[in-house]
Structures are given as C-alpha cells and as structure tokens.
Design a protein that fits this description.
The protein is mainly α. Helices cover 79% and strands 0% of the residues. The protein has ten helices and no strands. The chain is elongated. The model has no long low-confidence stretch (mean pLDDT 90).
Length: 205
C-alpha cells in the first residue's frame, strides 16, 4: 500500500471514530488531509472502499499484535491485559454510532469485522484459555468453548450502545471492567492472586 494511502486511512479513521461513518463525507476527508476530492478518489473510488481499507488495515494490525503478545506475555492473564491495552489505545474513545453506521451502511465492511471476530478472535481466546489452564492461572474445569464464545459475544453488548449508552458509559471503562470480570471468572486461586497484583500495578502506573 502506498504511503499516501496509509496516511488517508490513518487520518480518516480518526474522523470516523470521532464523528461516526455516515456523518463524514469524502469532502470532509479531503479537507482534513488538505487535498482535493479528485486526488482522494485516485486512491479510493468511494467511501465504502475507504471504509473497507480501514477495516482491513485494522484487522491486519490486530492479528500481528496479538501474535506478538502471545510470545512476549508473562502468562495468559498478562496476554489479555496487554492486548486489551492495545485495543483501548486504538478505539478507547470511539463513538458507538460507528458500529451502527458500519452495520447499516457498509455491510461488506461489517462482514469483515464479524468474520474477524468469530474467526481469529474466537480462536485466540480459545488458545488463551488453554494456555491459562496449562499455566495454572485458570481453572481446570473451564468449558473453553462456552467461555470463549461468551467473551466474544460480550463485545457486541459493549459496542451496541443499547445496554451501555454513550456517553453515559465510556467504551474504555466498560471494556476494562468486562475484561476483569472475564478473567476473574476463569481464574484459579493462583490466577486471582496474580490478577489482584496486576490491577494494583496498573493503578500505580
């Protein structure tokens, strides 16, 4: 991908996350980048193609980061914390209308997200559960398939905006509380001790 395309993706992503997808026009994107709309259309034929490019780039970034943290993390709980930090850095202040707009107006982009979630992310959570059990930080009697699917499904609740309407509930606050709830439910006694220390460490940073 060309450097200019990457710049367009990066800066238009910030616009979409802040204002929603529907409300941002290609004129807005061109104005934000300081280029003509004609130049913008050289790189992306329409907004749908731009949205798909943004999502494809985001998914690839997510995959690479998750694979890296599986190697670097101290244990399964540490892995989840590190990946969650990354998620929050990417979309911590996201306007939930983005997900509504994506689903309603950009179905191909929405399908990319759904396939990523129920493919790569679900499998990553399964592997994290297996790792945690083998390390002794998760309970041995976990049903990994049920727990993994519950976790992935919880992202729909967080992002949907109905149960946790924005701005009354901030995405980052709900996300981290859900993460702690998820880990606490899986954790063994050893895992709970580690989790408490990890939370204490996070608060002191």
């Amino acid at each position: 991908m060309e450097l200019k395309q990457l710049e367009i993706i990066e800066r238009s992503t910030l616009l979409f996350l802040k204002l929603g997808i529907k409300s941002v026009t290609m004129d807005d994107v061109a104005r934000e980048l300081g280029i003509s709309k004609k130049t913008l259309y050289v790189h992306f034929k329409d907004k749908s193609e731009l949205v798909k490019a943004i999502l494809s780039t985001k998914i690839e970034l997510d995959r690479n980061y998750c694979c890296q943290k599986k190697i670097e993390a101290e244990n399964a709980i540490d892995e989840l914390f590190q990946i969650s930090k990354f998620v929050l850095e990417q979309v911590g202040n996201i306007n939930p209308v983005v997900f509504f707009d994506l689903k309603k107006y950009h179905p191909e982009g929405w399908e990319l997200m759904v396939n990523h979630k129920w493919g790569f992310i679900l499998n990553s959570i399964r592997e994290n559960i297996e790792r945690g059990i083998s390390e002794g930080v998760y309970r041995e009697n976990l049903d990994k398939e049920i727990v993994a699917r519950l976790y992935v499904a919880s992202t729909d609740v967080i992002m949907g905006g109905e149960v946790f309407p924005w701005p009354e509930f901030r995405f980052d606050e709900v996300f981290i509380e859900t993460l702690r709830f998820h880990i606490r439910g899986m954790a063994s006694e050893t895992g709970i001790i580690y989790l408490k220390e990890r939370i204490k460490k996070e608060k002191n940073v």
